[in-house]
Every structure is written in C-alpha cells, then in structure tokens.
Amino acid sequence: SATIGTLQNSQLLNEPQFVEGSWQHGLNNLLSSYSGLTFASGYGALLLGGAMNTRLGAFGLDVTQARTHLPSLGSQQGQSLRLSYAKTLNATDTQIALATYRYSTQGYFNLEDAFLNRQYLSGTSHSLDFFHQRSRSALTLGQPLTERYGQLYLTTSATRYWNYSGTDVNYTLGYSNHFNRLTYGL
Description:
Helices cover 6% and strands 62% of the residues. The chain is mostly beta strands.
C-alpha cells in the first residue's frame, strides 16, 4: 500500500505533507513479514516486523527506526519496539487486539510528535509544553451483534511520557454498521 497526504492536527499551524508505504507478505499459513516507510520534510522512519499465527492467536513483533531533524537540536534518532496480539473467539465472534509500544530511546518520535516538537522548539507553538511519548499500550475488544445490527467496540489505552510523570488513560466506546453501501459509526 502507499499513501500520500497531509498531517492534520489542530495544534499544528500548518499541514505538512508526508508519504508512506507498506508491504506485507505471507510466507506460509503461520508466518508473515511486513515492512513500512514514512517520509516527510525533516523526518524518516523504517519499520520491519513479523507475525506468527498460532492456536492461541496471532503474535507480532516489529521495530521502527526513526530520524527527526529538530530546530536547535539537530538530528535525533531512536527506535520503537511494538508487541501485538490478536485473536477472534469463534464461539461469540469476539475480536481481541492488544498492542504495546515501547519507545526504547528518547530520540524516537512518531510522525505527529516530530512535527509537534519541531513547532514547539521553533517557538511557534500555542501550547506551553510538549509531551514526548515514552510508551503506549492499547486494548481493543470488538463484538459483532448480528449482521443486521452492526458491531460494538471498546478501546482503552494508557500512554506514558519522557518529560511528564503522569499517565494518560483513554476509553473509547463505539458502534458501526452499514446501510446498503453506506458505512456509519458513532
């Protein structure tokens, strides 16, 4: 897959352009490999990983190497490690997905954080501080109702930061369905 777009965030004064691509390849019925690239002005990231399907569910592991140019700090580099798990419970069709991200070095920035930090360091940020993510964990549960009644999902996430001692915890409850070719969600 390939994407060309602009990063939209209400805290950013502009909408920087980016390009990203990914490749996934099933090696056999048990193993898959995947990779990805993201590029923007002053930012680049490379992701390499793999997933293994087992009777207990699918397990994934990947690492992302990112390089960010920041005003007055120069080039910053770092790695992020992600572990993931997914399983569908056949009896109820319930989907479970768990992902945990460990930003193993302080020099790692994802695309959005790179541009927020760049804006903050250039003195044009409206916020008083910038929170630099250190780790994040997310759990998503999805439950199809019946084909006619759509699907419910619940997501919870916890994020920790390098420069902030607290933890952000978020919960999202959602519903999606379709009417003919129109898909909608709340």
